[in-house]
What does this fold into?
Amino acid sequence: MKIAVVEGDGIGKEVIPAAIDVLDALALPLEKVPVELGYGKWERTGYAITDDDLETLKECDCILFGAITTPSDPAYKSVLLTIRKELDMYANIRPIKPIHGIMGVTGRNDFNLVIVRENTEGMYSGIEEIHEDVAYTKRVITRKGSARIADYACKLAKSRQHRLEIVHKSNVLKSDRLFLDVCRETASSHHVEYHDTLVDSMAYNLIVHPNRYDVIVTTNLFGDILSDMAAALVGGLGLVPSANIGKEHAFFEPVHGSAPDIAGKGIANPIAAILSMKMMLEWYELTEQAKVVQDAIEYTMNKKMVTSDLGGKATTKEVGEAIADRVRQLIG
Ligand code: NAI
Ligand code: MG
It folds into this structure.
C-alpha cells in the first residue's frame, strides 16, 4: 500500500493530519508519500503542480487529499482538474448518509443515497475562450464518458437497492440528450430500475424527499452542486467525503474546500476527511478496518466530542485524537 498524502491549502493542513492520526491508529503496513500541491506552492514557486508531482502521484496506488484554494487568476490551472484528467479518475462518488447522532437541516435521517458524478468532461472540459466582452465554456458530453459513468452507477446500484436516478437537463441542453439516452441504455442492459429527473426539480426533491433515492448519476457540474447541497441533509460540508475512482488510481477527498474563513483556527471538522480515508480503506477492500473507523466516529460523535459547526467545542486535533484512541481500543 503506497498512499500519496496531499494536505493542500487552508483547512486541508488541519483535517488531513487528523485523518492520518486515525489511519495510523489502525497500524496497517503502508507507505505514506507527502506531496505538496496547491495555491501555497504556486505562490512560492510559480507552480501549483509539476510533472514530477504527477509522476509521484502516479507511482502511488491512491491519493488522500485535503483541499486546495483556487485563486481567480486565469493563469492558474486547476490542480484538481489536472489530476482527475491525468489519472483519468472518471467517477466521483459522494455518499450522503446520516451519521448516527447528528441531524441535518431537514431534521430527518431516513435516507441513504450516493451521488455518482461524471468527473472528466461536461462543463469542466477545460475548453474555454475568454475575450474582453464574451467568454465561452464548452460543455462536452461523450458516449464513452457517459457509458462508463452509467456503468459504474449501475454496478453500484446493483450492490445496493437496484435503483438509479438519472439527473440531467435534456429539455434545454442537447448535450444531455446523449447523456440521458446512454444512461437509459446502460441501465436497461444491467436490468437496473431507473427513472430520470431534470436537475432543477432534483434540487427540490433531494431536500424534500431524500428517501426516494438510492444511486443518482449525473454530469460534472450538476453533481458538484447537488452534492454540496445534499451535504446540508447530513449536517454540513464538514461531514461529507468523496472518492474519485479511475481504472488504475483513486483519489479520496472531503467534499469541502480549503475554507479560508476558518483556516488556521483549529476548528475545522475533520469528519469528512476521516470518512474519505475510510472510503480509501474500502477501496483497498479493508472492510473490517473501515467498519472500525465508522464505529469510532459514531462513538465519538455520540459523546458530543464535535467541532463548532456541529455545536461543540472540540478542536480538529481533539476530534482526530479521540477517534484514533477509540480505533486503538476497538482493535485492542
Ligand atoms: P468551502 O467548502 O471551503 O467552505 C464553505 C463554507 O463551509 C465555509 O463557511 C467553511 O468555513 C465551511 N466549511 C467547509 N469545510 C468545513 C469543515 N471541515 N468544518 C467546518 N466548516 C467547514 O468552500 P468555499 O468557501 O466556496 O471555497 C474556499 C476555497 O476552497 C476556494 O478557493 C475554492 O476554490 C476551494 N475549493 C476547493 C475544493 C477542493 O480542493 N476539492 C473544493 C471546493 C472548494
Ligand atoms: Mg464542490
In short: The chain has a mean pLDDT of 95. The domain at 103-234 is CATH 3.40.718.10 (Isopropylmalate Dehydrogenase). The chain has two domains: 1-89+237-332, 103-234. Residues 224, 228 surround magnesium ion (ligand 2) (CB under 6 Å).
